[in-house]
Amino acid sequence: MAYTLNTGHALYGNLIELIGVQSGALVSHKTARTFTPESGSSYGSGGWGEHFSTVYNGYSTKGVSFTPSVSLNSTTTTSYTVLAVFNGTGTVTSSSSMLISLPGGGSSSIKGPGKTDAGLAMGSRLTGVNTMGTGQRMLTYCRIGETAAKLYNNKVKDVDATGLATDWADTTAAFSFIGGLVGLYSMSVDLVWLAVFNKELTSTEIGDLYDSLGASNAFALVASADTTAPTLTSASVTAVATTTGTGNVTTDEGNGTLYSIVSTSATAPSATQIQAGQNHTGAAAVWSGNQAVSTTGAKTFSITGLTASTAYYAHFQHKDAANNNSTVVTSAQFTTGSADTTVPTLTGSITISALTTTSYTATLPAGSDNIAVTGYEYRLNAGSWVDNGNTQVINISARTPGSTDTLEARAYDAAGNKSTPALSVSVTLLIGTITIPAVKDWSTGNLKTAQTGVQVDIHNISTGALVVRKTGQTTHATTGVCVVQDAALSDATTYEVITRFADGSKGMWDYTTSLT
Q1: How far is the C-alpha of 32 from the C-alpha of 217, rounded, in Å?
Q2: What is the C-alpha separation between 182 and 173, in angstroms, rounded?
Q3: Phi, psi of 197 (to 5 degrees)
Q4: Is the pLDDT of residue 128 over 50?
Q5: Spatial distance between the Cα atoms of 232 and 318, rounded to a whole number of angstroms
Q6: What are phi and psi of 79, to 5 degrees?
């Protein structure tokens, strides 16, 4: 794609040279220069558009030379900036490898961005230890007199060095080679842009230049020859639901960014407002979105967060890679569906299974709804409701043996409607139980009926150790039955049971527990 210098840019007057790639060839934008690529170098493309690729080749270069050289008087222009934009970088020969050089000597070479193993800012070593990293990025070297320099990685200052004494002033400082220095070192880089300025750029100026980079060689220092804005057609919204819809539009350009907003007004926002996610008043839009465009044709947006029973319009706008803005197009009015206020129904009984001393499983009947049941929730003993997801099986654990739970459950739908009243079931956890069928005085054999304050000691039958002592127990008024329950009692286990009565008598028998 053809580009011309952006003469209206604030830095145009400070630009000594801008070298870039157009249609598979290196081009200098300020001064006509002849470029002679070396064998092995090549052209390609990446995230920021076309690039020229130099190749690492040990001490032999595979870069490009050009005439005339880029030069400046560094005795009068005491500060300068060299900015390089890469789609990627690779291997270099050594820590002294420089992006730009002046073969043959005779003058001091203008330095390009890089840094030494010690971290000093200078025009060397684009990759490796203590370097500016690899991959797609913009590197900027600011020479500040003979002894100071700054180095920026993208738009972040990486080095701010003084006392360098490494950049001597020269009335004809220059460079005429990109990709190393013949006979000394080489490197692999994918160069998109190389710019030289006659001053130290500020961090703000560097940040603005970085932010202007984009696909198809977009850069603030140039203006694209593409002056044709994209055309959008067939704006519509389909699959409209209560709070969502699908935005549709067709574009005739396969680059740049497509934007959309939704508002309650048919008045179209400006391109700038849509790109900022605003409606025509400048307020935040009800919904906004954007997507990168790489092909022509129909595009869709997933619109969310709308209000039920409300009329809306979708507005679309396309900004291409050359910053040409399409006309805003607007869909026909669309209205979201009515809010669902119908509560689900949950009837029947809750079934309890797998009951133990500390856990059980509750199975709910299936709920019904005018649209769909989307889940169930439950609570225990009037506590907080717990979401069980869209499953009818509730697993309850960590309960107290012998305690009784009241479990309530209800169904809900996508609109948050919940069935009422809640289904309820009472669940008593199992507990170890010993039933003494007829408590008797061991010494006399007399039946001990209607006894109160009975102490029952339950012992391990093998070791004699006391397992649990229960006080305040009673016996039946006519049968003398005494029922003892405790969580310490294991199921189907035989214990030695000693009963002690208020009159001092006692009984002793062996009994086996059950879970009840």
Answers
A1: 20
A2: 18
A3: -120, 155
A4: no
A5: 7
A6: -125, 140
